[in-house]
Amino acid sequence: MTINQQNIKIINNTALVPDKIFLLELTSKHLSRNAKPGQFIEIRCGQDLDPLLPRPFSIHSVKGNKIKILYKVVGKGTKLLSLKSPGDEISVLGPLGKGFSIDKKKKRSILFAGGMGTAPLYFLARALIERKLDVELYFGTKNSENLITMNPFKKLGVKIHTASEDGSCGKKGLITCLLDDKILKKTKSSKIYICGPWSMMKEIAKWASKNKLTGQVSLEKEMACGVGVCLGCVVKIKGEYKRVCREGPVFDISDVDWEEN
Prior knowledge:
Layout: E1 4-17, E2 21-27, H1 29-34, E3 40-44, E4 55-58, E5 61-63, E6 66-72, H2 76-82, E7 89-96, E8 108-114, H3 118-130, E9 134-141, H4 151-156, E10 159-164, E11 171-172, H5 181-187, E12 190-195, H6 198-210, E13 215-218, E14 234-237, E15 240-243, E16 250-252
């Protein structure tokens, strides 16, 4: 893995949902040539040391020399990032972490995304389709606001199934309400990939284990350094603690201790 810190100029920083969801576009030969689906970068969002720590962002898309980051404004760091304009320069470290592995023997891939869990899964979906594999996406959201993140998947031709907590889009309920016998028949010959809130991932992982399904999950933890030095993002994996930023963020579903973390 080739890690590099560099100052990069912003090409675009587009508000998909005003003041909430943004698509950041950068140009970097280094990142575009070395990034793999599931990896992330660290961005210093403010000026000087405010805020002190950089923020981790999943790599959403790579095309040519362009790299895109899908993010949601949730705190000071992301708020400062959302205020940046084309031409502004930011400090970026990456690509970081271990990404997804693609099993070419599995002809179908089932993706499960909750909320902004779509951020790393689009990059993966493109890689799967480029390898002539079938891809379906099961998406859970609180309301229709996050539906804007589905557009890139639709352009790829990905079949999408949606559940929303308020019933404003798709089936009313949590994403687990989509886990019926029909999807189980599909997943028997598929590999599954998951990213989203911990509670959602835990329930799908339990369902996968019960039905002897294989797959991977992209975990989210607070990361300070991004390279495994600070030990601030450890999780229990196979009875021992591992760093999400270094040994992850992608792990096999069956390896995560879902009860202890």
